[in-house]
Amino acid sequence: MTLSVKVDSTEKRFLLFLAAVLCIVPLVMAGQDNARAPATNPATNSGAWSGTLVSSSCNADEAFNESPDCTKNLPGAKLALYDDTSRVMYGLEPQESVTAHLGDSVTVRGTLEDDAIRVASIELMSIGLAVGQKAPTFSVHDQFGRVQTLDTLKGTNGTVLLFFRSADW
Fold first, then answer.
1. What is the mean pLDDT of the segment spanning 114-132?
2. Which of 25, 44, 55, 145 is in Cβ range 3.0-4.6 Å of 77 for a Cys bridge?
3. CA angle 118, 124, 125 (to 5 degrees)
């Protein structure tokens, strides 16, 4: 006796989707476990982190909401680096290398040890072009699929381009 089951295309798509999810989830979970594993060699944690220098008396939510208290020099508080892309606060050592930059957007290079960065160097982040500097040529598709360039966007009084990165991208 032969049993046949008729499956419509919507059910097929759902079953394929379910199979794909069941195959991918274990791989993603394994990757997250590896990302959480502590490094045994501090040299492997060398890198650069960007963010805003805030008072350690602030938490990540206050820093994210740009609380004025986060950029006040409070007695007993140290400076921390707030990374707004990951919403993580990093301690910084030595403090002497960062004290002059409270409230500044910076890039810190160094070594991550637990939740603190051993600072090797710090530099202010520059945003945008310097006055008088020419914009680079570019080509990008707009929301309607048309190619836009610096020349197609130039107006008689100049051009202002604003790129906004949403926190949930």
1. 86
2. 55
3. 110
- Averaged pLDDT score across all residues of the chain: 78
pLDDT at 165 over 90: no
Q: Are 148 and 141 in contact (CB under 8 A)?
A: yes
Each residue's pLDDT tens digit, 25-45: 455 455 544 444 334 344 458
Residue type, position 83, single letter: D
CA distance 92 to 29: 31
| Per-residue burial over 123-154, b = 16 or more CB atoms within 10 Å of its CB, e = otherwise | eeeeeeeeeeeeeeeeeeeeeeeeeeeeeeee
Contact criterion met (CB below 8 Å) for 123 and 50: no
Element spanning 153, H or E: helix 150-153
Residue type for position 150 = L
